[in-house]
Amino acid sequence: MQQAILVAVLALMVYTVSLELRPGDFRYVARHPLPVCIGLLAQFVLLPAATLLLTLWLDLPPATEAAMMLVAACPGGALSNVITALGRGNLALSLSISAVSSMAALVLTPLNFTLMIAANPETAAWSRAISVDPFDLVLSLVLLLALPMSAAMLSSRYAPGFVARARKPLARLAGLALAVFILAAIAARWQLFVVELGRTLPLVILHNGLGLALGWFGSTAASLNVKDRRAVTIEGGMQNSGLALGIIAAQFDSDLAMLAVAGLWGVWHAVSGGALALIWRRNDRRG
Questions:
Q1: pLDDT attached to residue 11
Q2: Which of the residues in the chain have pLDDT under 50?
Q3: Which residues, 6 or more positions from 134, have their beta carbon under 8 angstroms from its beta carbon?
Q4: What is the span of the domain harbouring residue 172?
């Protein structure tokens, strides 16, 4: 019952965020393919590959390594669009990367996750022990991503009046429900969570910094302009931790070590992304 509630809340969040998507976001891809491709490369190739190498290098519990892999395999979240706008990056590019990556995630998230797990001997043995099923991962993505996103775009097309009235109340309701759910889960196992916090937060900071750095270096190597670089950097380092939480609840029985990684990602990437946006704005004022 608890898992079903979390899945429903996350689906509502995806629906609410997807109300902002427009067909024009996808048309931008056709007109500006290089920046979008660099953003997708940072999300679905560079960060997963670097995460696999990081987990092979570090001696961590298999569940923690698996959670890092899962977060790295997820597409960017809607918060990346807000942070990009705050940091005066290219919002149209950010929206386009988010839209395409959300669709591509139906295939690439389970593919990347299962490939990474299989390539690491420790997580490979762990996943066999708990019987991770790639089909179940795809089903979770359909329930958490494809269906609510499709419903949102249909709502925007055929019920714009409803969308205009419901967008803000739905966003507040979904955000409040998710916060209450996470706080209740932490409170129920507070002592264990404190232990996980001490050893997991430094890993999350390192992992998130790696994603931001890969986005920055990738966009710099492609000679993108400043606004495009900012968008790609944020998209490379801000993953959809809410989606990861839903998959953990649906497929891994809310494993505490995995929840700690995904939950702390959700907090920390907002802090790091917001700090970057403020630094960029200050640099713009100085310039």
A1: 73
A2: none
A3: 110, 111, 114
A4: 2-286
What is the per-residue pLDDT for 116? 93
C-alpha to C-alpha distance for 287 and 277, rounded to whole angstroms:
15
- Which amino acid belongs to residue 250? A
DSSP code of 239? B
Q: CA-CA-CA-CA torsion for 73, 76, 77, 78, nearest 10 degrees? A: -160
C-alpha 158/C-alpha 171 separation (Å) is: 20
Phi-psi region of 88 (alpha: psi -120 to 50; beta: other; left: phi over 0): left
Tally of domains within the chain: 1
**What is the per-residue pLDDT for 16?**
75
Select from 92, 75, 79, 67 the least CA-distant residue to 17: 79
Q: By the 8 A CB rule, do 211 and 233 touch?
A: no
Integer Cα distance of 30 and 15 in angstroms: 25
Helix axes 62-73, 121-130, angle to 10 degrees: 90
153: Cβ contacts below 8 Å, ≥ 6 apart = 18, 21
pLDDT confidence of residue 72: 94
Cβ neighbours around 233 below 10 Å, total: 31
| Domain of residue 224, CATH code | 1.20.1530.20
**Packed helices 91-119 and 23-31: angle between N→C axes, nearest 10 degrees:** 80
What's the first-to-final CA gap in the chain, in angstroms?
A: 54
Q: Which helix (H) or strand (E) holds 216?
A: helix 190-221
